[in-house]
Amino acid sequence: MNTTRLAPLVLLALPFVGACERPHASAPPAQAAASAQPETVLGKTVASALDKARKEMETGNINLNHGVDVDVGDHGHHFRIGGNDRDGKPSAEITPQGDLLVDGRQADVTPAQRALLLQYRQQTIGLAEAGMAVGVKGADLAGKALAETFSGLIHGNADAAGKHIQAEGEKLKADARQICAQLPGMLQTQQQLATSLPAFKPYATMTQQDVDDCMKDDKGVAVTSADGGFGEQVRQAVHDNIRDNVRAATHQPPDAADTAAASKDSAARP
């Protein structure tokens, strides 16, 4: 059985951009990402991993237990769409055919319920893909920020580099805010399923307050799903990207660049 964990580590840029600025004293996201390919090694690494995740989502079962975490702006508001691996609920999945599997058993559904399950599945994938699109742009921006920060420090124009990255970060926030626009329709489908299909109700965790908080925030939104392997891959890409920029900017030998990269990588972790 092919089961998909949704959209791992989707929004990457803002924590990394903030770290890169320390030395210095609207189309939907999916459409926006399609118009520009990532330019940096970090952006391309993340794009490749997310492309694999996207294909798995489209062909595999969507696991409702893993859920999707949404963190809203600077308010510290957090909510989860779907279940939690640690909450003790039975495993639940939606198949590409619109079946609901609970603890490995197929729930009885009417044609109308199946249509809602398929709709909810597509909305969940759409939310994850929108987050992926922002994540690729964010990773690319993080790679550019690292390069421009090192270059600015070496050449004495750190202020200009910082202002440019800050401007690009504001554009990224605008893209991220578009993710919230997808939540009202998803909430409506979730409520319809919870009302008509008791087996689905334990996984209907998003509320109207969650949607309202997301829509009114002006700082953007992060969509994530924990996946340790993917996170380690991204962290390694960050380290390698920093190391290469240290070498290029300072002409250091490999050993010295690795030491500097490790120090900067530690500071860049969210």
Oligomer: single chain
Total of DSSP H or I helical runs spanning 4+ residues? 9
Mean pLDDT: 67
Q: How many β-strands, per DSSP? A: 8
- Give the ordered list of helices and strands: EHHHEEEEEEHHHHEHH
Evaluate the radius of gyration.
20 Å
Helix coverage percent of residues?
55-70%
Number of domains: 1
- Which parts are unreliable, with pLDDT below 50 for 5 consecutive residues or more? 3-35, 226-231
**Amount of beta strand:** 5-15%
* End-to-end separation: 34 Å
The largest pleated sheet is described as: 5 strands, mixed
For the biggest β-sheet, the strand order reads 1-2-5-6-7
User: What best-fitting shape do the alpha-carbon axes yield?
Assistant: elongated
Structural class, judged by helices and strands?
A: alpha+beta
Topology, element by element:
Elements: E1 3-4, H1 13-20, H2 29-34, H3 41-59, E2 61-63, E3 68-72, E4 77-81, E5 92-94, E6 100-102, E7 105-106, H4 111-155, H5 158-177, H6 183-196, H7 208-216, E8 221-224, H8 228-250, H9 254-268
Parallel strand pairs: 1-2
Antiparallel strand pairs: 2-5, 3-4, 3-8, 5-6, 6-7
Helix pairs in contact: 1-4, 1-5, 3-4, 3-8, 4-5, 4-6, 4-8, 8-9
Short recap of the structure:
The chain has 270 residues and is of the alpha+beta class.
